[in-house]
Amino acid sequence: MKIIINKKQYDFDEQLLIIDACRKLGIDIPSLCHHPSLSPAASCRLCVVECLNSNSLISSCSNTIYDGMEIMTNSPRVINARRMNLELLLSNHPNDCMKCDANGNCKLQDTAYLFDVDMDSIGRETRSLKIDDSSDFIIRDLNKCVQCQLCVRVCDEIENMNIYSMVNRGHEILPDTANSLPLSQTECVSCGQCATVCPVGAIVEKPSLKKSRWWDLEMETTTCPYCGVGCQLDVYYSREKNEIIRICGSTSLKEVNDGVATCVKGKFGYEFVNHPDRLKKPLIKKNGVFTESGWEEALDYTAAKLKEIAETHSGNSIGFLSSARCTNEENYLIQKLARVAFKTNNVDHCARLCHASTVTGLASTFGSGAMTNNLHDILESDVILVTGANPCENHPVYASRIKKAIRNKGAKLIIADPRRTELVNYASIWLNQRPGTDVALFNGFLKVILDKDLINHKYINERTTGWEELKSNLEKFDLDFVERITGVNRDLIVKAAVMFAQAKAASIIYAMGITQHVCGTHNVMSLANLSMATGNVGKYGGGVNPLRGQNNVQGACDMGGLPNVFPGYQKVSSTESLNKFEEFWNTEKLSDTPGIPLTEMFSNDRIKALFIMGENPAVSDPNSSHVEKRLNEFEFIVDLDIFMNETNRYADVILPAACSYEKNGTFTNTERRVQKINRIVYPQGDSKPDWWIINEISKRLGIEAEYSSVWDITDEIAECTPIYHGIVSKRISGKGIQWPCRNSDDPGTEILHEGKFAFEDGKGRFMKMDFAPPPELPDKEYPFYLSTGRVLYHYHTGTMTRRVKVLDRKVRNLKVEINPEDAKMLDINNGDKVKVISRRGEITGEAKVTEKSMRGLVFTPFHFAEARANRLTDHKNLDPLAKIPSLKVSAVKIEKVK
Ligand code: SF4
After folding, report:
1. 799-823 pLDDT, tens per residue?
2. Does ligand 1 lie within 6 Å of residue 677's CB atom?
3. Is residue 119 very low, low, confident or very high in pLDDT (cuts 50, 70, 90)?
4. Measured between alpha carbons, how far is residue 383 from residues 304, 431, 498, 514, 523 in Å?
5. Mean pLDDT over residues 477-485, rounded?
6. Is the CB–ligand 1 distance for residue 231 below 6 Å?
7. What are the angstrom distances between the C-alpha of 66 and each of 19, 70, 810, 820?
8. Which of 129, 142, 44, 144 is nearest to 99 (CA)?
9. How far apart (Å, rounded) are the C-alpha atoms in residues 150 and 99?
10. Among the atoms of ligand 1, which is closest to the Cα of residue 398?
């Protein structure tokens, strides 16, 4: 289409807003209320342009261009109108720029400067509203509000929380909370997006106040170091202070977090970087005391000790813990070190505790153990089944998108979860099955769908195998049986199953409520069966979508941080893979025997030493007391970390690592998207990136590899990993690339299994399974189910988030969630001190009496080292295929502490 702007003709091939079209051409148009990720409000009227076709002034942020349109952006009429609107805004704006936190980043200030406004000539009457200082995260001063509605829109359209709405009329209209409550008394989850979009100083981030002026800051974009969503963040930092000052959702990248979104951890969780507790020097334990050393001494000593252990016992006596928090490059190097220098496959990491059953379950049904669809695709779903996942706490930015799919796109939500998670408020159906009965529930779903002939015959015939065997196995799962086992009313099961089967596109989202069971692999397979039988795999809006918990747990698996596979899931037991890697790494005699998984490393006497990178098994692994006992027994432990923690106090050497804001590399998020992390600040003290540390140790153990930068490792990964072949360092920028990406022309893969599955014959495999109850059920002595998990404000074992004051203040100690009726029976009130006791140990926390827990179920987060939920869990009962422990079902008793 052709449009004329300022008497010059331009061609456009897309329907843009006038403001965006002009900005694309470099024609500046002022605006306070426009945001590329939000719907237009046309409220500030600073962006007006003159439309010659209609002889009128129109707002450029709410009108699109059309063929033959003729506009002026700089005519006297436009300039006068803008000036008048600007002066109206300035007439009630406090003139306190000198001390305003937004000074230097204020669009009103910039526009006043542009228009050379004489403030003295404007009749001024400012508001005198009370400042809302109640939140630890943000301050709201509506005296400065320019009524742009950006805070209202971002909270409504992106966060889907509706904390604010515009109240009053005319020039008194302002964004306020319901009943004008202070923010701290609302449902606000402190995502901070209102502060990110506020164009003036009306909403500002409290932790950033008085730290630095905007003009002293530099900005770099990187990937969030917390959950598997992988939000892109614009990080503002002071070069002089080597300190992060504030973080905003990246405006330049929309793929993952909509060009603006963050959760409270991504937005405010950076204070740990400069925390005084950071490890700054290598430490060697001498006579039982950690003593600072230089790098040469520490690296030489570590390499020599590892060599000595291998010579004394064999390379197979060393266990290597790679890390879901470290980069792909670092995970690649640690498994290479284990396999090449020690000829062992004893490499594993905490995926063993969260999604090992996803890998085994989806690899055996679909041929690939990863999320099938992408994170935006949920907006295409008609029905969404969320089971064993609590995204509002664990994957908040994605949770907001699920809410959007329901509120704006009309999707129906089914929740199958023993806990009443926040998403239940948005659900059409909530099935609160007994913990550990998922196999019965989802086979029951499939039986209903089969009996009602709602299966997708064509899909089953053309794209799958094993249906007949599964079909006959389903006979056992009639509604009598399923209702008895799961405790869910049969009518609800039927309603949910029919709703799922009749959807044009039905998506399944799950997390650790499905995987952390001794039947975790079967749970995953039952979901895969359900999705294939209804023809939902390999299409937009469908799929089976495991939500990975940590920032790079997908990448750590992809890199071969697992005992049975080389990078890219190439099996260690395959002669072809062995030959390939022996040649590629210029070595011989790589081991073809799968190594010892993490959950057995602490029980297997063959393991004499540990090489740990960025993990804290003393808190994260089941049965902490057992883990600690074993940590005490190992002959040698080297640990790479950013802090001292409950694990590395047992180490012989601690090597101080750089955190993700201090190094370069890549993370792979839960939707298989490989994204860059960019160094923002310099490492604290003498700390070094883990890849540098591992490489130095590798060199001392005879591995010849010179990397001029981390990007050489990225390229080495691409060379030997078919699903990463096209993901070379120079291609990974901006929105990243989703694997599989097989060559340099391949744009990557949004949806897996379109047309064919990842097996050689291209067919998906139905897998049959029987229901087996969890190994430890409540009984007379231990009458409650215990489920463990996470809360919004903390991350994993709390080493980072508990060192961020505002996050720590929000949730300071262990809360034990208990149903009101159970609490009443035990005479427990909110806030009472309670003991949770299992056959393995006991912990003390504060009772939180809540309907979130169904009767007979208590929930505790595992973030708190001083009250470790894993003191209670069992390390012995493992899924036989995935070796994942039963972290979601233990039997406990509760005692009120008098
Ligand atoms: Fe970071 Fe996850 Fe929050 Fe995004 S949703 S900001 S990736 S913690």
Report:
1. 999 999 999 999 999 999 999 999 9
2. no
3. confident
4. 57, 15, 11, 19, 20
5. 97
6. yes
7. 13, 9, 51, 60
8. 144
9. 23
10. 5
Query: Alpha-carbon distance 321 to 290, whole Å?
Result: 22
**Pocket test residue of 222, 232, 263 for ligand 1, highest count of atoms within 8 A of CB:** 263
Q: Residue 775 Cα, ligand 1 centroid: separation in angstroms?
A: 34
Is residue 171's pLDDT more than 80?
A: no
The answer, as to whether pTM is greater than 0.70, is yes
229 lines ligand 1 (CB under 6 A): yes
List the one residue out of 338, 880, 728 whose CA is nearest residue 562.
338
In this prediction, residue 154 carries a pLDDT of 97
Pairwise CA distance, residues 402 & 400, whole Å: 5
- Listed in sequence order, the residues at least 6 apart from 785 whose beta carbon sits closer than 8 Å to its beta carbon are 418, 434, 435, 777, 778, 856, 857, 858, 889, 890, 891, 892
- Tell me how far the alpha carbon of residue 771 lies from the centroid of ligand 1, in angstroms: 35
With a 6 Å cutoff on the Cβ, whether 34 touches ligand 1 is no
d(CA 268, ligand 1 centre) in Å: 11
Indicate the average pLDDT of the chain. Answer: 96
Q: What DSSP string runs through 153-201?
A: HIIIIIS----EEEESSGGG-EEEEGGG--GGGSS-----HHHHH-SSS
| Beta strands at 232-238 and 217-223: parallel, antiparallel or unpaired | antiparallel
Is the minimum distance from the CB of 230 to ligand 1 under 6 angstroms?
A: yes
Contact 152, 175 (CB under 8 A): yes
Answer whether 572 contacts ligand 1 (Cβ < 6 A). no
Distance of CA 864 to the CA centre of its chain: 20
Instruction: Return the structure tokens found at 879.
Output: 């899924």
Q: What span, in angstroms and rounded, lies between the C-alpha atoms of 873 and 836?
A: 11
Residue 329: strand, helix, or coil: helix
Q: Which residues pair with 415 in a beta bridge?
A: 386, 430
Ligand 1 centre to CA of 376 (Å) is: 15
**Ligand 1 atom closest to residue 396's alpha carbon, by position in its atom list:** 5
Residue 786 Cα to chain centre, angstroms? 24
Check pLDDT > 80 for residue 559: yes
- Tell me the β-bridge partners of 825: none
Q: Is 266 in the pocket of ligand 1 (CB under 6 A)?
A: yes
For residue 398, the CA-to-ligand 1 centroid distance in Å is 9
Closest Cα to atom 2 of ligand 1? 227
Please give the average per-residue pLDDT across 135-156, as a whole number: 96
Q: For residue 889, is pLDDT > 80?
A: yes
229 CA closest ligand 1 atom index = 7
Q: Which of 720, 694, 834 is nearest to 326 (CA)?
A: 694
pLDDT recorded at residue 846? 97
Torsion sign (Cα): 779, 791, 542, 463: negative
**Could you give the CA distance from residue 161 to residue 140 in angstroms, rounded to a whole number?**
17
**Residue 39 backbone phi and psi in degrees, to 5:** -70, 155
Q: What's the pLDDT tens digit per position in 221-237?
A: 999 999 999 999 999 99
Nearest CA to ligand 1 atom 3: 263
Beta partners for residue 788, in sequence order: 860
Q: Is 697 exposed, middle or buried (0-12, 13-18, 19+ CB in 10 A)?
A: buried
Q: Is the pLDDT of residue 122 over 90?
A: no
Distance CA 773, CA 148 (A): 56
> Could you read off the pLDDT of 390-421 as tens digits, one per residue?
999 999 999 999 999 999 999 999 999 999 99
Burial class (CB in 10 A: 0-12, 13-18, 19+), 571: middle
Percent helix, percent strand, percent coil in the chain, to nearest 5: 35, 20, 45
pLDDT at 170 over 80: no
Q: Comparing C-alpha atoms, which of 165, 214, 227 is closest to residue 554?
A: 227
DSSP string, 568-584: GGEETT-HHHHHHHHHH
pLDDT score for 121: 83
> At 737, which amino acid appears?
I
